[in-house]
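ok trying this again, last paste got cut off
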Amino acid sequence: MRVLLVILLSSCLLAGPAAAGPRQAVAATLDAFHAAAARADLDKYLGLLTTDAVFLGTDGSERWQGEEFRTFVSSHFSEGKGWTYLVEDRQVTLAADGNSAWFDETLDNQTLGRCRGSGVLALESGNWRIAQYNLSVPIPNSMIVSVAAGIRVLDEGAKLPVDSQKNAEDTASSIEIMLESTADIAADPATESSGEGSKKSCRKRFKTNTRADC
C-alpha cells in the first residue's frame, strides 16, 4: 500500500506541471529571451527565435527578419551591448491545436519607460520559439494627436492649419531634441564618479540599447 501511495504521489507531481505547462513554458521562453538580451548572450538569445523570426522595433522603419535580425543583434552583442526590459505584466493565449501561442506584455525600460511587447511563439520539436516580437511605446490618448502631427511634420513636412502646424512643429522639435540627446548618449559609455556610491551610467548607441553590464 505504501509503495502504491508513493507511485500515485509521484504521478500527480509529474502530471501537475505537464497539465499547466504550455503557458508557463511560453512565459519561461519570453523570460529567457529578455534575460539573454540583458546579458548580451548571443547564442541563447538567437536560440530562442525561429529561423525566420520577425522583430519589429519602436521606429516604423525597424523591421528585421531572419538573418537580417541575427546580424543586427550580433553587431551589438559582440561589443557586450545588450538591452534590458523588465516584465511588469503578461498575458498568454494558446492556439486550440497547442502548436502556437500569442502574448502581450507590459515592460519597463530605463530610457523609454513603459513599453509594450507582443508577438507569436511556435512550438518546434517540443520547444517554444519566438516567431514574431513587436516592441512599442504606448502613447497616452491625450498626447496622440500632437505626437502624430509631429511625426507627420518630420516624415512629410505636411502642411497643417496654423495652430496645428505650431503644435506639430513644437512636437517635432521636441522629438528632434530627444533624438539628438539619444545620439549624444550614443557616443560612448560614461561613468559618474562623484564620491561614495558613485554609479555607472551607460550611454546608448541605439535607442533600445544599453551596455550589458548596466
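PB: full thing came through this time. Residues 2-39 form the longest helix (38 residues).
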